[in-house]
Amino acid sequence: MSVTAAKGFTAAGIAAGIKTNGNPDLALVVNTGPRRAAAGVFTSNRVKAAPVVWSQQVLADGELTAVVLNSGGANACTGPQGFQDTHATAEKVAEVLSAKGADVGAGEIAVASTGLIGILLPMDKLLPGVEKAAAELSEHGGEKAAIAIKTTDTVHKTSVVTKDGPGGSWTVGGMAKGAGMLAPGLATMLVVLTTDADVDSAGLDSALRSATRVTFDRVDSDGCMSTNDTVLLLASGSSGVTPEQDAFTGVVREVCDDLARQLIGDAEGASKDIRIEVINAATEDDAVEVGRSIARNNLLKCAIHGEDPNWGRVLSAIGTTAAAFEPDELNVAINGVWVCKNGSVGEDRDLVDMRYREVTITADLAAGTESAVIWANDLTADYVHENSAYSS
């Protein structure tokens, strides 16, 4: 049930006509619980879409009542009109929720958009769509909301974890969209997470930042950072349970990790999911830098697509970083076969079986005890085709 698995939330997903193909394109998630706590992380791209700027502002007090999301248009690089449209969208959500008996202002509404950059949204379709979505809000509407935020995604992405504790059970649920422009920057797509745990905004912020740092921030599909990346976490408090902070953070991380893996699994054109683990690094930052360099090496990504265990491309990617290592102490394994030992030829590369979807690359820097995992995917002709025709 995605974002409505946690008690105290309703959602809807409808076709407002923003997409010309008639597919669902507008989602609404509403917190109906006694608590309205919220936190968010956003793109670190200096070019930020109007909804990102708006949502950062309304989250300043750590409270949200609802999130409205649209696909079919990013509302990025649209100037003052784009920001006015974002404000108008929030005002419309507040209006329709107030008409349903809530006391809501636009400053309690986050807005998120995804789609083509540089195009104004069709407000004559979006605003009536908000009314339609509000009329269809349901405790069972999470799945439809997840479907409505898809762009080039081939599948919708949801995750739910429920925990039992001394005070009772509580849940974290979430939905995500993203198939391209997936690169680190706190977040790499649109995500809404919900929980019925009774957690304040500071606790939500701490858990979310801790979780995204090692999940969404370590997904690196194509090295391209979006202007619209948004991850929101809302708490309704409806379970009446306040979990221990570490336990709560762990569950948020579990949901984020699941969604991040689904993003890589649905990356545009991908035929291989690549798990890159850097071990024995001097620092965690070194491990992350090396992992990202390997993930962004297009020659290696092409080799993986061709099921070629070309470990030389891994070493060349490591060599472009500022990480601490000695070239003649590097070791590389592909799918468990140590094809490179001490910076030179290792086990027979013909032993590497690359027929399956998941490929693992282990890079041993022999420089310390720290490690990190980065998820990436191969580079295919389908990715080029998808992105050469995207604007049409």
Task: State the gist of this model.
This protein has helices at about 50-60, 80-100, 125-135, 140-150, 200-215, 245-265, 285-295, 300-305, 310-320, 380-390, and strands at about 10-15, 25-30, 35-40, 65-70, 110-115, 155-165, 170-175, 190-195, 230-235, 275-280, 330-335, 335-340, 345, 360-365, 370-375. With about 400 residues, the protein is of the alpha+beta class. The model has no long low-confidence stretch (mean pLDDT about 95).
Describe the structure.
This protein has helices at residues 50-58, 79-99, 123-135, 142-148, 201-213, 245-265, 284-295, 298-305, 311-318, 381-388; strands at 9-14, 26-31, 37-42, 66-71, 109-114, 157-165, 168-177, 190-195, 230-235, 273-281, 331-334, 337-341, 344-345, 358-364, 370-377. α5 (201-213) links the parallel β8 and β9. 31% of the residues lie in helices and 24% in strands. With 392 residues, it is of the alpha+beta class. The chain is globular. It has a six-stranded mixed beta sheet. A five-stranded mixed beta sheet has the order 3-9-8-7-6, sandwiched between helices. It contains ten helices and 15 strands.
Class derived from helix and strand content: alpha+beta
What is the tally of helical segments? Answer: 10
Unreliable stretches covering 5 or more consecutive residues: none
Helix content: 25-40%
Mean pLDDT metric: 94
The N- and C-terminal alpha carbons lie at a distance of 33 Å
Oligomer: single chain
Question: Beta-strand level of the residues, as a percent range?
Answer: 15-25%
